[in-house]
Design goal:
By secondary structure, the chain is an alpha/beta fold. It has two domains: 6-53; 69-218 and 251-336, SGNH hydrolase (Rossmann fold, 3-Layer(aba) Sandwich). Helices cover 40% and strands 14% of the residues. It contains eleven helices and eleven strands. A hairpin with a 3-residue loop joins β3 (84-88) and β4. It is elongated.
Length: 355
């Protein structure tokens, strides 16, 4: 006689199969929980390690480039048109951009007097001072027979200033280009990045001509931090973004300094359109031969180095420093613009830069 009848055996077998089927989802759920816990533990451990050893390498920069600047595929960054904010420098100062994104008034296309376009970086932009205290605003009162136009942008080097000049020439049609050369321009003219990790254009010299290394400047980590503020609270996110950007677009450096070529390109571009080219130096580099270069190439220049600077955040000129600079430039411009240049008519030109 069989130990189990066939019908009962089938019932027992069915019960075992049902129990086994119910155990599968539970086992998968437990496995998923373990994986999630492992991921969470790894994430928290990575956050702790980054916070302990690498926090200073992954900053979110609350400077003008993230507050009133926007990504620009050719220049790297440019001013946000008609934006306004207060920036905390050595002391809080107000910033109001015009329709083109410059910290200046809007200017009519039609000229009524000769125009002096002031080209440069944060020293021209006016870091740490109110716009009314900036040297070009003081000069406007001293020299009302001219119209001063300020196109300075914080962090720019000579390569970006050259591109900017070509982009906005027809809008402003200057009669004089006063180019203020900052003491760190030579360094950044030969890099495709800045000390804070912002990406920028870089020229190289090929067959005797300047050529942009990249047609499009890549977006920097700070751009993504600004676009995704919640995710950017995580150091892991910041680290992954920084690694991703770096490996897709590695840092580059010129083997040969192109600074002299960039300055000569600015002069050539201005003079070919009937404008006079003048230069100033925030602090001439005697070892690099800044002043000797100007003398050799017949470029009128002025040394504007002075001790009236803010003690940190870039050592920019104080209000007193801007006042002193304006006094020096009043004499320099009066000497080099006598007689005053006549009004030039806008003549669209082909871009001389090979992109």
């Amino acid at each position: 006689m069989p130990l189990f009848k066939p019908g009962r055996l089938a019932i027992i077998s069915g019960n075992c199969t049902a129990r086994h089927g119910r155990q599968k989802p539970v086992r998968h759920l437990n496995m998923a929980k373990r994986i999630l816990l492992q991921i969470l533990f790894t994430f928290l451990l990575a956050e702790a390690v980054l916070a302990l050893f690498f926090r200073d390498d992954l900053p979110i920069i609350r400077a003008e480039k993230s507050l009133i600047y926007q990504y620009d595929p050719v220049l790297g960054w440019s001013g946000i048109p008609n934006s306004a904010t207060i920036i905390q420098g050595c002391a809080p100062f107000h910033v109001q951009n015009n329709a083109y994104g410059f910290r200046d008034d809007d200017h009519n296309i039609q000229k009524t007097k000769p125009r002096i376009l002031v080209l440069g970086d944060s020293f021209v932009w006016g870091s740490d001072v109110e716009r009314a205290d900036r040297f070009d605003q003081i000069l406007q009162k001293k020299m009302p027979e001219y119209e001063f136009i300020n196109v300075g942008l914080s962090g720019y080097s000579t390569d970006q200033e050259l591109i900017l000049l070509t982009r906005f020439w027809d809008q402003y049609q200057p009669d004089v280009v006063f180019h203020l050369f900052c003491h760190n321009d030579r360094q950044y003219n030969n890099l495709n990045y800045t000390s804070l990790g912002y990406r920028k254009p870089m020229f190289e010299k090929t067959n005797g001509q300047l050529r942009l290394v990249e047609a499009v400047v890549p977006k920097c980590p700070q751009y993504f931090y600004t676009q995704y503020p919640t995710l950017s609270k995580s150091l892991v996110f910041r680290a992954l973004v920084k690694i991703w950007v770096y490996f897709r677009h590695p840092y580059k450096e010129n083997e040969t300094d192109v600074t002299s070529d960039l300055i000569l390109a600015i002069r050539s571009f201005a003079e070919s359109r009937g404008a006079k080219h003048l230069m100033g130096f925030t602090r001439p580099d005697k070892q690099a031969g800044d002043t000797h270069f100007c003398q050799q190439n017949g470029i009128p220049f002025i040394d504007l180095s002075n001790p009236m600077v803010c003690p940190d955040k870039g050592n920019h000129w104080t209000t007193e420093g801007h006042r002193w600079v304006a006094e020096q430039l009043d004499t320099f411009l009066s000497k080099n613009l006598n007689p005053p240049p006549g009004l030039i008519q806008p003549q669209p030109q082909n871009d001389e830069i090979n992109e």
